[in-house]
Automatic annotation (TrEMBL):
Organism lineage string: Bacteria, Pseudomonadati, Pseudomonadota, Betaproteobacteria, Rhodocyclales
This protein's name: Rieske 2Fe-2S domain-containing protein
UniProt organism field: Candidatus Dechloromonas phosphorivorans
Rieske domain mapped to chain residues: 5-112
Keyword Iron-sulfur in record: yes
Annotated SUPFAM superfamilies: ISP domain
Length: 114
């Protein structure tokens, strides 16, 4: 069966280690918040939920990186995550990482691979 793709946004909407793009995905029949970011030239997608509790990470819409622009940070708990894997690096996530979503970038567009 061929993989389907859903357009998320134009590539220019996602800044390198900066503002990400929020969108929703269907999970068990419900719309769940998600986001895509760019880190070291590659795009990564995650559900927008801290590993500690289901709180959204961004402290302002689309702002997922900490001040250093190296880590993703939960605005509620301060948990730090690796942008390229979603792995918990410290804080209240207690080893629980972010749930990754398959995304791809083709012809200046970012897609959710379903």
């Amino acid at each position: 069966m061929a993989q389907e793709q859903r357009l998320i946004c134009a590539s220019e909407a996602v800044a390198e280690s900066g503002t990400g793009f929020r969108f929703t995905v269907k999970s068990y029949g419900r719309d769940e918040p998600a986001f895509v970011i760019r880190y070291q030239g590659k795009v990564y997608g995650y559900l927008n939920q801290c590993g500690h509790v289901p709180a959204e990470l961004d402290w302002q819409p689309g702002e997922f990186f900490d001040d250093s622009k190296i880590y993703l940070i939960c605005s509620i708990h301060g948990a730090l995550y690796a942008p390229d894997s979603g792995r918990c690096l410290g804080g209240r996530c207690q080893g629980k990482g972010l749930k990754a979503l398959a995304v791809s970038e083709i012809d200046d567009k970012i897609f959710l691979d379903q």
